[in-house]
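Build the 3D complex.
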Amino acid sequence: MHVRFKALGVAAALGLAATPGLAQEKLKVGLLLTLSGPSAVLGQQARDGFQLAVKDLGGKLGGRDVEVIVVDDELKPDVAVTKVKGLIERDKVDFVVGPIFSNVAVAVHKPIVDSSTFYISTNAGPSNLAGKSCNPYFFATSYQNDQNHEVLGKVAQDRGYKKVYLLAPNYQAGKDALAGFKRHYKGEIVEESYVPLTNLDFQSELAKIASLKPDAIFTFMPGGMGVNLVKQYRAAGLAERIPFLSAFTVDESTLPGQQDAAIGMLGGSNWAPNLDTPENKKFVAGFEAAYNVVPASYAMHAYDAALMIDSALKATGGKTDNKDAVRAALKKADFKSLRGDFKIGANGFPIQDFYLVKAAKRPDGKFQTEIVEKVFDDYTDAYAKECAATI
Amino acid sequence: MTARAPSGSGTQTRFGRRLGLAPFLLFAAFAVAPFLAAFSGAEGYVLSLLTRVMIFGLAAMSLDLILGYGALVSFGHAAFLGIGAYAVGILASQGSAEILIQVPVALAASALFALVTGAISLRTKGVYFIMITLAFGQMLFFLATSLAAYGGDDGMTVPERSRLFGSRLLESDLAFYWACFLCLLALYGLLRAIVGSRFGRVLRGTRENPVRMESIGYHPFRYQLAAYVISGMMAGLAGCLMANQTEFISPAYMTWQRSGELIFMVVLGGLGSLHGAIIGAAAFLLLEEFLPEFLHAAGFLLQDDMRTRLVENWKMIFGPLLILIVLFARGGIMGLLRRGDHG
Amino acid sequence: MTATLLFVQSLNGLQFGLILFLIAAGLTLVFGVMDFINLAHGVQYMVGAYLMAAFSAWTGNFGWALLLALPSALAVGLVLEALVFRHLYDRDHLDQVLATFGVILFLNQGVKFVWGAAPLNVPAPGWLAGSVEIADGLLYPVYRLAIIAAGLLVAAMLYLIVNHTRVGMLVRAGASNAPMVSALGVNIRRLFMIVFGFGAMLAGFAGAMVAPILSVEPGMGDNILILAFVVIVIGGIGSIRGAFVAALLVGLVDTVGRSFAPNLLRLLLDPATASQAGRALAPMLIYIFMAAILFFRPSGLFPAKR
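Done.
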């Protein structure tokens, strides 16, 4: 395996690089991830997960040597579009894998699929890409964005919570999150609170929660905001009294910052590090040995993306020129996913199980989420029926 | 707040000689680039990168009019990029992709925003002006994030590029490149004419000594406001081009960081020369694009994981590089070139 | 119930305002006395938080960590001063902006290089970890009360230093007319260094204090920097008093406004529109506030220069 960070581009851009006419060309995969700024840790998880998979597969995908080209989208949609054009036209990648954030995913969707390149999302699953704008070149190994929130909505409904307080950042994904929660929850919502995206201090909201005394709160508060919220929720003494349901708020990427404050808090996920399959055990042990952190679902999705490409190319004998054959093979998803049950639906999104998970401290002092119960079995996202593409 | 710029009161040599070769070489390079790009094997990528350079060059140049010639540090200039981009995106999603509708709307909206915020901001001076323009920029940014119908925070894909008289000419990257080139060239000429006119001289005069200008009967405020509006409209046009290039609009186009980057490009290139701003934009964007690769090549002695770390943390090199440019290259890149001429 | 809520929100606003004041105080002095725009002030706040995290992991004790973090933050400030800022004092503002922006890029990436991109955790000291019950079911963390106390203490100390010591007198004189102070034979370079180091330490102190309640992560200083600039511009550049008043105003407007703006709008509009408009309006509030103040007082509330 040879990993490079866009080398040779200068020469190519200046028009100096002759196309090397190698007999056995390497397979090229472009990883488009957020690797700078406060959310870099998510991109790093995905990058490490993908590269671990390539290493475990002996540096080959589908029998071909692989070149993984990592680019940083800087979480700026316009930067991402330029970089993705570079991946496609300069580096001539066969697959684009990534990104982390939905706004980037939407921005790069058109340039990628217009160039007939396969696009595998390892995290972002915006509703329009699952529904109206679904495309035969787009796949996801993650989920549709609403699904993790739906898990908590179902749990809140099943546990008979009468009043729930909702809290999310004031942006599109935050609004989608609350909409996802409400899909299965039919009780009373005492308040929908939106905070600015750069919010660091939740005292105002905590004061409101304490005064409204809901049966539970549900929140979507990714990254550093989640770290702050969880610590402050615990410090305000609310954690013992009002159950804390969340998605993308308490996971392995934020637990190193939250630590003991998060223990016992509930989340929704399609996987957890302690999921009991032999493949997963090997993956978690391997990941921790290689990078010294507990893998989060971002790493798992990226690992699965590599397995998916591997399985597809095995089916086509390593060839990528017949797009229909590659697509059919990708759709079959003929590999053992780390999360167990895994199929690809008509819109390119997975059909999979979802779990209620809980943050816990392991005997070795590290923190991870652990499975409490299965909430959905072979679950399809709500937008799949809007997808008219005949894949 | 004082801004450094070559003072216009030097020896009045002929227009062409004073300008030097830089702008001619610059535009010649942009004109030749597409022909070379065809041989690079990555034509689309090279074109898209250079188109981006020209668009940011246009925005930076518009900022240079008020920053370099008027010493007005606008820290909310990205708002105009946003206005232009959203005008294109919103109109296109409503079904009017005609550029002859989009651009006038964008220009009118930019002019209106510039007129209102400029009239308020110009009451203040120095750093207060910087901060009040920042405030207006932030207001527009948050307004865009709340436009749920147009993607809110996530932004929105623009359904199609602008049409010219109904034709889909601009769908071709090459045609779009030339369109941007013509815009840049035309506006460079326009701005050159503006700064060379009486208006430009008064603007420079108010930069050097507003009290004197007032005492000889000029109203600095009117000139500054007019320059602010012109500058805003040009940045708005750059925004139209940007929405077309990325085929995407997003509030991320008008963050304060983006406004900072524009100031940056102007200072990096050298204040008050117009083409300096374009060169600054090119230097900034190309460094951002190629510094990681350069580091990769330079780090061949290091172990693989150390090398990856170095490349990933390219901003650790980029930062000190900027400091060094400021410390040792007074007057930005144009300052360096000018010194090269004399020495 | 609304009265208690208003009280708690005001307490939150006060605490937020005091943190802003700690950062803005250094910024306004450096700006006022040295006429130096230091964009890197925000990363000094971040460095303070990171130092706190590192020392607290090393010593396992909050007090020791704080004692170590403060001089280290000071040292970082002085090193930056000697390496970069000193060479920029006689440059114009734009050069300063450019170079200090370079420092931001470097340090943001630098902490990521050293400590990784994941947020770090700093435990609050045991004796401040609890919370007090203000009203029925409404708990307020003791640690936040401690921040308020520390902030007020520092403000009082600054007031004494600036108004009743020789250095303070020079600082005030420098803020209103720096060339004159220099002409009177004062070693202005040394004064600059003291002011700068002190400002860096205050920002570092703010970072260290918030480390237990906020997540310590790269870039955490960027947004607070903009708010600090808002504060010093509202207060009037160079004025500690102005920074104090403006910091509290900004803290209150942001916290209380965000919490009550949607409710107030509900009196005028139907609920759906009100919540939509409130959501759009809330983050703009402090900028509208600043623009309004500058409209009526173009040099801020307490202009130091005349």
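Residues 147-269 of chain A form a domain with the Rossmann fold fold (CATH 3.40.50.2300).
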